[in-house]
Amino acid sequence: MSFLFGSKNNGQKTAQKTRYYRLEGIPFFLLSPEDRDMKMKELSTLLSQAERGYIYISRAPGEYEFEGTKFPIITSSFNLITEKEMDLETAEPPKRPKIKKEHAKYLQTMEGYARVLVSYRYSTRIYEGALGRVDFKQMNPELFETIIQFQKIPQLSVRNYLNSLEMKKMKMAKYANVSTAVEEMLTSGTQLKKDIDEEAAEPIKFRFIFVIHAKTLQELESLTRELMKTAQENGMLLDTPCCAQSELYNFEGGVGYRISSNVSLAKFYPLVGFNLVEPNGIFLGTDEKGAPISINPYLATNGRQNPHWAITGTTGAGKTTTGAALIDRLRRAHGEIYVIIIDPMSNYNRFFTNEADLNIVFKDGDYVGLDPVALAAEGVVSSGDIADFLIESYGIPLELRGILVSQLEQNRSLKELTDNLESLASKKFATEYRKLENFLLNMTSGADKYVFTGTPPNLKGKRFIILGLQTEDTRKKRLAATMLMLYAYSLINKLPRSVEKLILIDEAHFLFEYQSVAKIIAIIYRTARALKTSMITMTQLIQHFNMNQYSKEAWQLADNKLILKQEKEAKDDLVNFAHLSEEEVDYVLKSSRGRGILRTGAITTRIQVQLTEEEKQRWRTE
Ligand SMILES: Nc1ncnc2c1ncn2[C@@H]1O[C@H](COP(=O)(O)OP(=O)(O)OP(=O)(O)O)[C@@H](O)[C@H]1O
Ligand SMILES: [Mg+2]
Predict the structure, then answer these.
(1) Which is it for strands 560-563 and 309-312: parallel, antiparallel or unpaired?
(2) How far apart are CA 498 and CA 300, in angstroms?
(3) Which atom of ligand 1 is nearest to the CA of 313?
(4) Rounded CA gap, 325 and 319, in Å?
(5) Which residues line ion ligand 2, judged by CB < 5 Å?
(6) Which distant-in-sequence residues (6+ apart) come within 8 Å of 611 by Cβ?
(7) Among the four residues 11, 267, 402, 592, which has the most C-beta atoms within 10 Å?
(8) Is a pLDDT exceeding 50 seen at residue 10?
(9) pLDDT digits over 287-336, tens only?
């Protein structure tokens, strides 16, 4: 090397270029413990290979496009900024608002205001995933940045540091005056020693930096308060450093004094990407971080299949509307689907007047024309189950069950059955037949005849069927809805297995009230899966799913459980039946429309069902 190369030149030669790499968000909270461990190992390797730099995470309002409609969501992007050459996809430097003026505790930017906060203390215990949980619950900032500044340090200097801690410890034991700060240092020192000795970890200095952006100073203040609060809940104390705002904002300055290891740092889960987006999924809404939730009920991968739903929410919580969104979007994305809606409040009749291939409203005095004997003959559910439905509906004594079942098996229509009973009853020693005949007479006389006699609607060749009821008569509602449900299911059984199908039953709570009807629903939940059929039932309270063994079974068989706002009385069931945590119970009791807990498979998330303005107009129920 020639002497002519001055130090300046030399410096230029060694100065490395800052490189930007794209990292992928990892859904840590949705992963199994084994997968989580594996991802954390990858992350700690990454930190160690990069040696020094920043993990830069930014979250800003974005859009999720579903079938040509754009929904507002929050998008997260993850970058690694380092001078090292890495085997990763490169990225553009992030676009950030430029600083206009620096104040002591905030910045004025070209787009508003910003504030830099630094975490300066941690609780003695590192909460796994803490960084992924530091977030906003009330308001979402325009732009929120999280920066993890890190730098590998030599093993030797760490050994010295650990030794000095040992000395401190001994001294303190002598004087017995342990300050919290020192105690925390000792705890993290012990952890670090453990990481290095047992996990071959590498020591790293680090600092967490948070940047909030807001349109106004007032907004900046409330966001600051909120961020400090959620950070504290996760064991991190934040501070707004005075006078270093622009330096920190611009990724300048040293890394600080806190020492940890690549292994421990990974446990903070900096790369939390929360998207619950399934292939060909139906966009439903966003989770508490604003990330999209998109579920495909017909997805069958790795044995995971999630066709069935249970939706519960107090009056006005948004059940019917959520069902409308689900069906409308499903029909747009899965064009070949068959949909049958049983609509006891006749809402869907109104929502989908133009789209439905068959849109029927049964009013008082209209004949539904559904014959349970004929349906029993079709074998969709057994004669025994139909018999139990009639027994419960007509208070038929149980000792008559045997002959009822055999009559259902021998006849092919209600007319045939009643004629047959009549002739049997006229014979000698036929009091049992006479008794049964008397009970069943109610089916063909009085108000019930509207349900069981007449001509049924023809569902053949129709893809989108809405069977609505307009009556205040709860009994009629229950009888008619049960029959319509059986009729719908008999159609489903005749359709090709390979096509996607769906049955939705709104206001199912008064169906679950009758054990025999609940049983029919449970049977559909049980058997529909093999027919590529999705079943959705909706009830006002979680208790309605906890009413009898069959309503419970329906709940258990629902792969997607959506719990919207509940009343106080639901508390016990939310804890003991739905197994929600105390925090989740609180959330559900206080929630507003379209907001709740979604449990899909093993994943539990909070959801806000998103509607476009147009959908809100179309599906108004109040
Ligand atoms: N996600 C949402 N976003 C905005 N508005 C909504 C949302 N969900 C429901 N709403 C509105 O709230 C009102 C009540 O909703 P909906 O009728 O779906 O409630 P429900 O749970 O079915 O009540 P009920 O038990 O009385 O039938 C509707 O006018 C609807 O437009
Ligand atoms: Mg409703």
Answers:
(1) parallel
(2) 13
(3) 21
(4) 10
(5) 319-320
(6) 321, 325, 594, 619
(7) 267
(8) no
(9) 988 899 999 999 876 666 789 999 999 999 999 999 999 999 999 999 89
Rounded distance, CA 282 to CA 592, Å?
Answer: 22
Q: Averaging pLDDT over each range in 280-289, 389-398, 430-439, which range is the top one? A: 389-398
Question: Based on the domain organization, do 353 and 379 belong to the same domain?
Answer: no
Q: In this structure, which ligand is nearest to the CA of 321?
A: 1
Number of domains in the chain: 3
Q: What percent of the chain has pLDDT over 70?
A: 95
569 Cα to the center of ligand 2, angstroms: 20
Based on the fold, state whether residues 125 and 48 are members of the same structural domain. Answer: yes
Q: For 67-179, where are the E strands, in sequence order?
A: 69-82, 99-102, 107-109, 112-122, 143-152
Do 573 and 471 belong together in one domain?
Answer: yes
Distance from residue 285's CA to the centre of ligand 1 (Å): 14
Distance CA 456, CA 332 (A): 29
Q: Which of 293, 504, 593, 598 to mutate to test the pocket of ligand 1 (most atoms within 8 A of CB)?
A: 593
Rounded to 10°, the helix 383-394/431-444 angle is: 80
Kindly state the average pLDDT of the residues 217-240.
Answer: 93
Cα dist from 493 to 213, 321, 380, 508, whole Å: 56, 28, 8, 21
Kindly give the distance from the C-alpha atom of residue 607 to the centroid of ligand 1, in angstroms, as a whole number.
15
**Domain stops at, among 266, 298, 331:** 266
The Cα 451–Cα 407 span in angstroms is 20
Residue 421 to residue 87: CA distance in whole angstroms: 82
Whose C-alpha lies nearest to ligand 1, atom 18?
318
Do 295 and 306 touch, CB atoms closer than 8 A? Answer: yes
Mutate to test the pocket of ligand 1, among 71, 311, 320, 509 (most ligand atoms within 8 A of CB): 320
73 SS3 class: strand
Mean pLDDT in residue range 421-440: 90
CA 12 to centroid of ligand 1, rounded, Å: 64
> Is the pLDDT reported for residue 429 higher than 80?
no
Name the 3-class secondary structure at 490: helix
Helices (H), 413-530: 414-425, 431-444, 449-452, 474-494, 509-512, 515-528
CA atoms within 13 A on the CB side of 35: 7
Contacts of 4 (CB under 8 A, 6+ apart): none
Same domain for 521 and 485? yes
Intra-chain end-to-end CA distance of the chain, in Å: 83
User: What rounded mean pLDDT belongs to the chain?
Assistant: 91
Does residue 541 contact residue 312 with C-beta atoms inside 8 Å? yes
The whole domain housing 579 covers 282-370+456-618
Within 6 A (CB) of ligand 1 lie 313, 315-321, 540, 593-594, 609, 611, 616, 619-622
* Residue 106 token pair: 């905030």
Ligand positioned closest to the Cα atom of 621: 1
- Residue 519 and residue 562 in one domain: yes
